C-alpha cells in the first residue's frame, strides 16, 4: 500500500492534508499533502533542471529504463491492484484488466515506438527553389510536461499519459486527482526503483488550485477530466500560450440494428455500461435499438444486469460492480434516474443508492427514455443503462449525434459494411462496430474526443508527438555565391520569374 511517506512532503512545508477514503468501505486510508503555488514552482524548477540529462540519455537508454518499469509493474501487480482498489473502490478485475495490463503494455509500446515516431523525417519538396537542399523535420521534447488526471483510472488515465512524455525525453510532473493520489505516489517509487533519475518524474498532490498552478509552470499540459474543468485549463493555458491536450467527458451511444447478434450486443451492453461501475469515459451511456429487436434486447440486458453482484471487493471474483469513487457523483447518478422517472421512464432493475457504509448505486436499466431526460443528454458516469426504442438506423444516428459530446460510439449489426458506413457518419473520435471500449487498448490507434469531448489525441503517433516541438531544418550544402532571386531586383528577372510561375502552375496541373 502506498502511503504518505512516499509523498514528497518536505517540498510542501505549508501543506494541508487531503484525506484519501476507500469508497467501498467509507474508511480514510491515508492523508496526502496539498501542494501550494510555491511548492508547484519548486517541483517544476527541479524537473526543469533534471530534464536535459534525461533527454541526453537517448531513446535506447530511456527505453531500457521504461522496460525495467514494465517489469516492475508485472512483478508488483498485486500491490498496484491493492492500491487502486483501496482508493477507487473498484473491483480487482477492473483494476487488473483496465489499469495494470494497460500500464504494462504502454511501457513496452512507448519504449519501442518512441525512437521510430520521433526520428528525424527527411522531406522531399516539389518546390524548385529548394532543389538539392536537405530538409528535415525534427522532434524535440518540450521540456517539462504537466499531467493532470481524473479519479476513475488512477493508473491508466493519470499515469498512463506520463509514459510517452517520459519516452520522448521530457521530465514530468503529475497532479493526480485529490480523490485517488496513492497509485501515482506508488508509481513515483516504481520509476525511481527502475532507474528514472531523481526529479525527472514527480507527483504534486493537491486539488484544483494545485492543478491550476501546474498549468502556469509547465511547457505542455495534458489534462484528463470533465469538460467543465477542461475549459478552465484551456483558458488558463492560453494566458501563457502553453500547448495542451484535453481528454474530456462523453455520452457514448450504442446503436443496435435489427440484424445484430442480440446475445453479443446484450452481453456487451451489460459489460461496457457497468464495468468500473460505469465510471469509464467511454462507457456505453445510452442505447438506441431498432424496434423489431427492442423487446428481445431489453429482456436479455435486464436479466444480465439483474444478476450482477455489487459490493466491496474482497478479492478476485468476489464482486462484479464496484463503488462510486467520487462522493458528488452519487448525487448526479441519483438525480439523472429521478429526472428520468419523473418524466415517465421506467426502472427495470436497480434505480437506488445501495446500502452499506460504502458508496454504491445499484446497477440500473431504464426504458421509456427520451432526449428530454438528463440520463440521455448529460454524462451520468455511473452504473446506469438507459435504452430507447427507435424506428430505424437513421433515427438512431440522428439521436446519437444529438449531443454536445463526441468521444466514442458503437454500432451493432451483422452487415459490417453497413455498420462501417453508419459509423463514419457518427460524430465521435472513435467508433467500434460490434465492439466497444477495446479500441482504448490499441495504442496504435488515436484516442481523442470530438466536440466537447476534447482536443488532441492520446495514443498513435500524435500521442507522443504532442509532447515535442517540431523543428524544421533546411540545409544548403552546394550553392552559388548569389541566388537568382536575391538583390538587386530587375525587370528582366521579374519577367523570367513570372514566366516560370506560369510554366509551373499555370496549367492547373499539380506541381
Ligand atoms: P475533474 O474535471 O473534476 O478533475 C480532473 C482533475 O482536474 C483533478 O485532478 C482535479 O483536481 C483537477 N482540477 C480541478 N480544477 C482544476 C483547475 N481549475 N485547473 C486545473 N486542474 C483542475 O474530473 P474528474 O471528476 O476527476 O473525472 C471525471 C471526468 O473525467 C469525467 O467527465 C470523465 O468522462 C472524464 N474522463 C475522460 C477521459 C478521456 O480519456 N476522455 C478519461 C477518464 C475520465
What does this protein structure show overall?
The chain is α/β, with parallel strands linked by helices and 511 residues long. It folds into 2 domains: 250 residues, Aldehyde Dehydrogenase, Chain A, domain 1 (3-Layer(aba) Sandwich), CATH 3.40.605.10; 190 residues, Aldehyde Dehydrogenase, Chain A, domain 2 (3-Layer(aba) Sandwich), CATH 3.40.309. It is built from 17 helices and 20 strands. The chain has a 7-stranded mixed β-sheet, sandwiched between helices. Strands 7-6-5-8-9-19 form a 6-stranded mixed β-sheet. It has a 3-stranded antiparallel β-sheet with strand order 3-4-20, with no helix packed on it. Strand 8, helix 9 and strand 9 form a beta-alpha-beta unit. The N terminus is likely disordered. Bound molecules: nicotinamide-adenine-dinucleotide. The site of nicotinamide-adenine-dinucleotide has 31 residues, from helix 8 and helix 9.
Protein topology:
Elements: E1 17-22, E2 27-33, H1 37-56, H2 58-75, H3 77-88, H4 92-117, E3 121-122, E4 134-141, E5 144-148, H5 154-158, H6 162-167, E6 171-175, H7 182-194, E7 201-203, H8 208-217, E8 220-224, H9 227-239, E9 244-247, E10 252-256, H10 262-274, E11 284-290, H11 291-306, H12 327-342, E12 346-349, E13 364-367, H13 374-377, E14 384-390, H14 393-401, E15 405-406, E16 408-412, H15 416-423, E17 430-433, E18 450-451, E19 454-455, H16 462-465, E20 468-475, H17 491-505
Bound molecules: nicotinamide-adenine-dinucleotide.
Residues 148-152, 157, 175, 177-178, 207-208, 211-212, 215, 224-226, 229, 232-233, 247-250, 281, 326, 379, 381, 407, 449, 454 line the site of nicotinamide-adenine-dinucleotide.
